[in-house]
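Lab meeting notes turned into a lecture example. A postdoc, R.K., suggested we walk through two folding results consecutively so the class can see how the record format repeats. The first protein's sequence and structure tokens come next.
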Amino acid sequence: MLLLQQYYRHSPAVATRAQHGTLLDDASSVICKKIKSVYYLQHMSELKIYNSIHRQKEVFTPITPGHVGMYVCGPTVSGESHLGHARPYITFDVVNRYLRFLGYKVRYVRNITDAGHFEEEGREAEDKISKKAILEKLEPMELVQKYTNLYHWAMLQFNNLEPSIEPTATGHIIEQIEMIKTIMEKGYAYEVDGNVYFDVKKYAASYDYGILSGRVLEDMLETTRELDGQEEKRNKVDFALWKKAPPEHIMRWPSPWGEGFPGWHIECSAMSAKYLGSQFDIHGGGMDLQFPHHECEIAQSEIAHGELMARYWMHNNMITINGRKMGKSYGNTITLTEMFSGNNPQLEKGYSPMVIRFFVLQTHYRGTLDFSNEALLAAEKGLQRLWAAYEVLQKLTYTGNGQPINEELDKQVRQLCAELPEFMNDDFNTAKVMANLFELAPVINSLKGGQIKMHEISEDTFNLMLHSWKTYLVDILGIQMEVLGTDEDKLDGVLQMLINMRKEAKARKDYATSDKIRNELLAVGIQLKDEKDGSVSYSIVQD
């Protein structure tokens, strides 16, 4: 059945009916004819994924044939997502798209972290949601809704497919408490004054703590520095499963250990098990999550369920600025709205979401991607070149006699197309896919200009090229120029977002921010006007 599904994905003749779940009566005979093609045989090659836990590429074999369960760590909605966050969401959107393209039924779960006690390496633990809510003078859930909406808007701009399920930490407190109780019953967690910690040293005595990150417990015990308020732990490396809520803490839930709130790591273990089972196929996220987040997930899940939670662990590398990781703690982030508008001193101009998507995918997901205006300008030109070639190809009509006169050219074109599935099956190598499309672009332009005559290639090769561009550029890489709208639409969208941010600032009596937004827009020639009905209009100030 999976082979049949793969054929439907690859055959433009039956694609429309296949999308509606209809099987053609003569499907078997059609497949028998098509399967003889080298191109179609290569589509059936094995998918290999670099498994971070084993540090090697492995043939992907799902637990349940024809089905894939994939969990990807989503955003912490304590603030706006930045360019560094865009990489995992675009990367795993392509993974999702390609698995579906191969015919798998994918359950893609991507969480929203809207509560939790964060323990990041070398930093004081904190509740990011509550801390930011105080700064912005908002209720925690008001803050969460604000940044969740902004995150969803950004994902739409990137043309990312929606996940199958998008669970929230606050919506699964019961599941987290039950999992903590199980871990305690098995003797691998302990309570101190309403706080519950996972006993890492006891776990490491029988299990491989560090299996994912390669960390050695003895080294961690020696090098982990003492942080304030951690004296109650048995070991410095123990992590919080549940934290007691101090009197001033707004986000709190009842538990067997008193009112409190969950640790960061427990939410992903609890929610992935609920929606994908105690063991599932793929767990994804940024490389910075390998330790401590994913390492802790593995430990607590293995105790709770008795098996490794995911079979394949995928991690995208980071985006750097001048060789340094982009992150809020480094003060070098560029938010996604700033990327789109250009309103950041590190940017020469604004860049469309598709340019950013293209920029991310032109490097293999496990490679470091260094940000610069020059790199983004090059990505913009590259995207324009590929999309222009695709538009030309769509308008071309085959006028040859069906047989190729130029056998060498015909073979080269077929080879470039046939390599596309090979590259995707080799750990989702989007960079090589793009390289082949760039090699095909001059052929397409020469067919239009007449430098290459249509009868130099066969009709089958022409159709293969047309189908390959649609399949890989649009369906798998997710490039869709129409999602951008006109420049006027983009300007209006950004302005409405700024107007809403100004309204929120005024509502909480943050007049400094409100005035700053109005004055900076005026400085670039856009005047805001507060109308009598409470709405806000804008006009372009003529020089």
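The second example is placed directly after the first for contrast:
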Amino acid sequence: MTEVRPLAAAPASLWERDEEVAAVVRAIDTLGVDSASSGSLLMIRGEAGFGKTALLAETRRLAEERGCTVWSARGGETLRSVPFNVVRQLLQPALMSLMPEEAREYLGDWYDIAGPALGLADPGERQADPQGVTDGLVTVVRRLSRRDWPLVLLIDDAHWADQETLRWLAAFAERLDDLSVLVVVARRPGEMTGESARLLDAVAATAARPATTLSALTPDATAGLTRATLGKHADAAFCREVWAVTAGNPYEAVELLAKVQESELEPTESAAGELRALNRSARGGGLVARLEELGIDATRFAWAAAILGTGISVDLVAKLATLGREDAVRCAELLCSARILTAPDPAAGQTGEGDLEFVHPLIATAVYNSIPPALCTAMHGIAAQVVTDSGLGAAAAARHLLQVHPDDDEELVEQLREAARDHLAVGAPDAARRCLERALLEPPQPEVHAHVLFELGCATLLTAPARTIDHLQTALAMPGLEGDARVDAVFRLSQALLHNDQLEEAVRTVEAEAARHRAGPARMRLQAVQYMWEGIYAGEATSPGRSERLAELARTCTGRDNSERALLMLRGFDAMTHGESAEEVVDLCDRALVNGRLAPGLGWTDTEWGVELLLMLANAYAYTDRLDRADALYSEALRAYESAGWSGGHLALAHAYVGVGHRRRGRLREAEMSLREALRLAERVGRGLPLYWTATCNLVDTLLARGHVEEAWAIAEQHGFAPPYPSTIVLPDPRSVRGRLLLAVGRTKDGINELEAAEKAAAVRGHHNPVLVPWAFDLARALATEDPGRAARLATDVRRHAERLGTDTAIGEALRCAAALETGQRAVRLAAQAVAYLEASPCQYEHAAARVEYGILARSVAELNRGLALARSCGADGLVAQARAVLETGRGLR
């Protein structure tokens, strides 16, 4: 019989792993060809003991033999609640080799964002954005990978990795096409559920080849391993029994054969019957019995080590197990001799504060599960104190506090609240949520209970708005939240309702709370929030006479505090959407600023009011031709979010509105770039949200302006730019943009229907700013042939609204529309007037379009060339082609 042997010089646990090792060799060799080569990911799946760790160790050996830099880390069964645990193991060694000032210089702006998550820097005062931290960690590895190429990352026991690490790993794996890094991930099948399972599946999906699934050893391979360990004289019956009692599990086979050697058992058929008893002693209850044989001190030491899970130093274990230093050292030696604990392998690159680790996760699990439940709980409580006393902080102690039984402990509640704040500060809201949920079980004292619920609601606001609603509604129904804290809680609740697509309930919530307050700053703030949510509602106004009441309230405001400034911004935005005088709109907005800038407490990263209010201010400027101020605010938002590391929805919105600024100015290429980035970021946050609609709508609008109709249609189809529309308003009006798109692709009837729906929706809301809701321009042109009378009435109405608004852009566009419906010299005169207004407008695309149209109507080569030059500078390829086509024919031109 032919024995299946491992590769030469490979350890015993690599028997029958030739194909897997060969795949690793190919990946390493490919990595080393060129520093510009694409990275790759290998996923190794296998049951406990099937040799995943051994295969990673062989990967390390092969990689280092070929001159690669290797970093490694592993998950831990009791450490899954510790945020960034695995990624810290992976990256800290490389970063710790740098001096603090070197690390700061090397990571640049990302140091303050990713540094706290990695334990390299103190967290800032604000709650960190989880997506920003993830992006920061991706950037850290990107920069280090260029320095340390060729780089191999090994992650063992990924099924026990913390969720924050898995989020980083999923994001990093998506970027491997432009990173020359090899990532090898080992995991057990199953073991994970929920978000962690989804993230690990996303990691696996990026692999260049299907996951390698390790199988049990065959009888032949087990026989080969047995004879390689015990000698060629081991007979066939003995070898078959080794395979039978271990079921071909490589780890169990290696451990069993070690026991055979220790017991000096002869590998003969007559001794085969003793193998089952030996195997039981190496696992489960047998391991526990063997541990007890080492004595009570050694048992307590092993238990304490299992409680700690990581950072297993003799000194910490001694404190937890209440052992003297000498006794602790002796116990450590006993447990190492018994192959229960071992010193970390320096060659494995694993670093930490510990002197010891368990020989195998199976042993760690067996020891932990052997601790009597009541004692296990008590030891976690002691461990929390030991960790805190060691100066590691509340966050490090939190995983132990989560295991302690509820007992009306006020101090424990405060420790968990502090740990939650620490977790939020480094971008780990899920870890914060676990701490606060556990604090509620204690339970908190009555005067504290509502505050804990409020903090829990804030921690889950961005990740679970429905859960946030429950927490905050419960908190507000309890005593304890008073004054500003209560107003803050109501505002957060209204935000959660907004994010959960319950905008009308958000309005009613703040309206009811405002009625409870007397006149003053708190009531004014709540009224402003009510008007803010009503202002972005896309349906019918939720309270009759809203605009009149808002105008009356704002009339008394001088901008002396942020509540008054907010009301001025809201009134300015409301007036802009209704198409009131642009001069009055700008005056209202200017009065909301302090020396032309946002007031303290009203910045883009301040949380008292939210981003919606500031976007209303910026958009009020944008759609009244004050693009200088709009651009300044959009750019300020982008800088603020980038420097704060906010890479989620806030950054997506900032890029989208920077794109809006470019689009309004006619910088169409720049607009397209910003909006594509906005859409990429919005995809990560989730489809269907207002920010997703904003990015998609404006990208479609920009592509249509560029003349890229097919691409605009493809974007609309790919990203669901079609009814039903969101409950919040999107700027510009998505129905108007989709109607223009349908006309452009030749679906005239559908386009007219969509534009008529836009007309009805605008009438319901009283939105008569023709630049913000531009349905009338396109509908008039579409109806010019089949219903010229209605088209003329629409053109007259839109001109009336444009003159009421009074901006050069609105009036110029209205004149363009009127010219398109006329013929002869009247059309020429109207087109000339449109050019005159749009030349004074900051919107250069519209100016270019008016020039080209005037040149065609006037048959003027000079005007066409002017329009052509403007169209080129804007990136309006469709206008360029139109102007060129007329110039090339030359018929009737002068």
